Amino acid sequence: MSEEQAGPPRDKVRHISPRDRVLLTLLAVAVLTGAVFGGLAVRTHSNSDAVDLVRPTGIPSTVSTAQANLMALSPVPHRPAPDFHLTDQNGQTFSLSSLKGHVVVLGFSDPHCTDVCPIVSQETVDAYHDLGTAASKVIFLSVNVNPYVTDVAAMAAYTHKEQLGTVPNWHFLTGSVTDLRAVWSAYSIEVDAPDPTVDVQHTDALYFIDPQGKERYLASPMVDHDAKGTAYLPADQLAAWGHGIALVSQHLTT
Asked: Using one digit for the tens of pLDDT, what is the confidence trace for 92-141?
């Protein structure tokens, strides 16, 4: 399960990796500078307490400021994405480097998750449909973060449950715990799984990798909880996330 299960209900939970903290610090400096010299244009989201302050530098022009803020979308240094060799839900083993020529949307999921992971899965399905003719140029990957459930059958079961089989270029990747830990470390994903009886806690992140195999953007998935602690996301935000993923991916295909 995802990390949000570990505490009382909270709105729009985000877990920030060390790399995110650096980017957000830079963004905060930009916001402060804009406030001093130019003022801030503030607009309130409907159904949300979030506000648009300034547009982050380097965001694709097709992505609205509201979408960028909703996704906590940030450009990252154009470094080569760390390579890995893992196996998907169909038993196919391949490397990230073998996918050059395609845009890759890379996330991290727990096959037993009932919280934010299914939300991101729905956004993935929506993004695939929003991509239209560009869909064949985009590959969606998710790396397993549950060190106690690493078998291919569990990846296949999650794929079927969340209807991700409708996305031809979806791959839920797993491998040995040693290999998985190496990937988590390479992408600054923190995983806390003290034993099989407690919920797995992990950083939620989406990396956008260009056809040359370089990291370009980073987004931070989010989730709301109702009074009973059940995870959900309002329909308009769910749709905005899916469309935003598609827009960023389309931008990288060009």
From this structure: 998 999 999 999 999 999 999 989 999 999 999 999 999 999 999 999 99
How many domains is the chain built from? 1
Which amino acid is located at 88 in the chain? Answer: D
Q: Which residues are paired to 87 by β-bridges?
A: 93, 174
Q: What is the CATH number of the domain that holds 14?
A: 3.40.30.10
In tens, the pLDDT along 212-239 reads 999 999 999 999 999 988 899 999 999 9
Helix or strand (DSSP H, E) at 55:
none
Task: Give φ, ψ of 4 to 5 degrees.
Answer: -70, -15
Q: What is the widest separation between alpha-carbon atoms in the chain? A: 56
User: φ, ψ for residue 92 (rounded to 5)?
Assistant: -85, 125
What does the alpha-carbon distance between residue 128 and residue 19 come to, in Å, rounded to a whole number? 27
Structural domain of residue 198, as residue ranges? Answer: 3-253
Locus of tokens 């909703």:
70
Q: Is 42 exposed, middle or buried (CB count within 10 Å of its CB: 0-12, 13-18, 19+)?
A: exposed
R_g (Cα) of the chain, nearest Å:
18
Query: What tokens does 36 get?
Result: 């001093």
Buried b (16+ CB within 10 A) or exposed e, 176-208: eeebbeebbeebbbebebeeeeebbbbbbbbbb
Provide the total of helices (H) and of strands (E) in the chain, helices listed first.
6, 14
pTM tops 0.90: no
